[in-house]
Known about the structure:
Mean pLDDT is 91; it is low at 456-461. Strands 2-1-3-4-5-6 form a 6-stranded mixed sheet, sandwiched between helices. A 6-stranded parallel sheet has the order 7-10-11-12-13-14. The protein has 2 domains: 3-154, Rossmann fold; 189-457, Aldolase class I (TIM Barrel, Alpha-Beta Barrel). By secondary structure, the chain is of the alpha/beta class. The protein has 19 helices and 14 strands.
Amino acid sequence: xxRVVFCFYTNDHEVNLGIGFMSAALRQKGIETDLVIYRDVxxxxxxxxxxxxxxxxxxxxxxxxxxxxxxxWKRIREVITLLRTSFGGLIIVGGYQGILGPxxxxxxxxxxxxxxxxxxxxxxxxxxxxxxxxxxxPSIYGMVFKDxxxxxxxxxxxxxxxxxxxxxxxxxxxxxxxxxxxxRKMHIGVLSPGGIYSLPVITGRGCPYKxxxxxxxxxxxxxxxxKNYLRKYSxxxxxxxxxxxxxxxxxxxxxFFDETFVRQRSxxxxxxxxxxxxxGLPFMIMARIDSLDEETVAVLAxxxxxxxxxxxxxxxxxxxxxxxxxxxxxxxIKEGARLLRKYGVMIVTFNMFGMPFETKETIExxxxxxxxxxxDAAYSTIFQPLPGTELARIAYENNMAIPPPDDRWDLHSxxxxxxxxxxSFVMRKLEEFRGRFTNQxxxxxxxxxxxxxxxxxxxxx
Length: 461
């Protein structure tokens, strides 16, 4: 019996939805799956690479599949290096690092293959074809092996699921049995630090926007354009998927992790009508603030929307449009926030500091715009030149950045240090921003209010 053990690194309260989808697809074909999470979460014991390997080997894998991003590739590499000395089976790497940097992944001596697209079908075919007693692997669309003859061509062939309904939905069992506590007591979901038991889901894949700091533009190109990349479950299928998870795990709140939940207003209207009737739990979404009109907000709030997370990034309207490709005015952002407030929906903003051609004045405008819309909390990060992004190209071509060392891919260390915007100034302003918009009192109030909004609809005491 073939057995795939997945592994991913997290320094947050993360559920790796890609692994959940691949596990569901493999199990549907009778292939056993298991999971090891490499945790580096504040307030909990930090896993060592040796501990991660011990847990992987204890699950008796024939294939070990790692999900990696640029930020955690260093840590995944360390595990693979040690694992290779004691594991003779197949080692596969996927995720954003595999899709956008496959050659770098294949250059690692411990890696046998890289998944260069979505993983359901390529991984099924790989595991089915793999025989430890035989050398070599056949050509598999969407999977590239180190020694295959047509490697250059294979690197261009990125498989994706054209119809999401063709494959089973997220396997949450693999997360439930990974530890010894079960989902209800594990640190799962972005709201778990506030004592809220929530589970993430998605209703589609892909994002139509091309923000310059995000890998999405590169992903759209790799997958052959928006027509291929953007996919959505029907409202009925989406609700049925969520209903199965709710029945089994009984969460207090649903986190919609679609990169932008509100894309087609007619879909939102149909979905919300079904969701309110069949599910009825409070929920949160991520959304473009410029995609929200009053009718849509009213529909969402009426069916259980309690929290919206949206990207503000820079409070300077001109900078935001010119360098970030976010074509939204300050007026639009303020109006969107006003509408959400009107319908009792909480808001959290995402903000970024230390970007190319940013100035001390643009940073002050980020403070000012957040102050104007008064978010319940404001998340903040520091720009990093992610591979395949336009803003990274701008930073490199203008000699503003060099590729960061591995230990600085953390979203909290400046990658730029220029006379116009010294790294020390960026760090000082970041701490000031957090002290003003995400201090302990604000965070306690944020979680407290959310708990009060959740509790009336909760099935938990």
